[in-house]
Design brief:
Layout (H helix, E strand, L loop, with lengths): L1 E6 L3 H7 L2 H8 L4 E6 L12 E2 L9 E2 L1 H14 L4 E11 L2 H8 L3 E6 L4 E2 L1 H6 L3 E4 L9 H12 L9 H5 L18 E2 L2 E2 L2 H4 L3 H19 L8
């Protein structure tokens, strides 16, 4: 898989792409990242990629021309399954979306910035718009890193124990159950007896019941008709 990220602040995301699971996935040849500075695609002598919006609204807007140049250049190299724009008013990013994207061969992530982006980019160049929540960040770089991390970690072989990723919160529409490790008792705080029993069926029942209870209590919006 290849993930190309277009940004005006590559230094904001570079470290995340070469750390932990993302680093190991690259070393295993499971994923390749391309980090592209949008300023390299502008013809402006001052390397500007933004301008004032028509209509007089406050703030600066990312221009269409350098973005089109960057995306066109990348598309000359390979076919892309998705061209994603990170924006607060996009679809909510979910585990299901991460799973879906992990099955693709090549994707582009365009990081939003400034006041917004020339809407023609969204109308003609973008295939999918993604948000991580109803709030505004300085730019989409952190969002791109989060998308990349969520997508890559579910690629088979990216983490040592693949079952670990499959049992994460939201994979089955539920929050993950509580987890414990040694010591079995600390300051009088004890690990539930069922987890020490070795009884696999009872342990799985306990975990499922805990997932359902935690989801109903903490995220009732996920429970639906459960």
């Amino acid at each position: 898989m290849r993930i190309d990220i277009i940004t005006v602040l590559p230094e904001m995301i570079e470290g995340a792409l070469h750390t932990s699971i993302l680093k190991r996935a690259q070393e295993k040849g499971l994923v390749e990242f391309g980090l592209h500075n949008l300023r390299d695609y502008t013809l402006d002598k001052h390397n500007r990629v933004d301008d004032y919006p028509f209509g007089g609204e406050a703030g600066m807007v990312m221009q269409i021309e350098p973005i089109d140049r960057a995306i066109s250049f990348l598309k000359e190299q390979r076919h892309y399954d998705e061209v994603i724009f990170t924006t607060p008013d996009g679809e909510q990013f979910t585990q299901a979306a991460a799973n879906e994207l992990s099955l693709m061969q090549n994707i582009i992530i365009l990081c939003g910035h400034y006041k917004g982006i020339d809407y023609r980019v969204r109308e003609h160049l973008i295939t999918r718009e993604i948000s991580i929540g109803d709030f505004v960040l300085t730019g989409g770089e952190l969002v791109a890193a989060m998308i990349a991390d969520a997508v890559v970690r579910v690629i088979p072989g990216a983490i040592g124990d693949e079952q670990s990723a499959l049992s994460d919160s939201f994979q089955d529409g539920l929050l993950a159950p509580p987890v414990y490790t040694r010591p079995a008792e600390y300051k009088g705080w004890k690990v539930p007896e069922v987890l020490l029993s070795g009884h696999e069926r009872k342990i799985e029942e306990w975990r499922h019941n805990q997932s359902v209870e935690r989801t109903k209590r903490l995220r009732p919006d996920l429970t639906g008709n459960r």
